Target: ATP synthase subunit J, mitochondrial
Amino acid sequence: MSLLPKKFPAPVAKPMVPFFAAGLIILYGVNSIGDALMKTDEFKNDPRNPYAKASKPGEKH
Model:
């Protein structure tokens, strides 16, 4: 016996396509804005910044 007694042929993914597309557009925009902000002068030397210039091997930050 299945968990649900009846199967209803309701489309699930097809009506959600615009929401998936909007989510991808928002994620791309947030990522590009974050990358642009990490490259600004204010955060260029922050040690948490992945784009920061690498320090010398023996030097601690």
Notes: Helices lie at 13-38. The chain has one helix and no strands. The mean pLDDT is 84. The two ends are 62 Å apart (CA to CA).
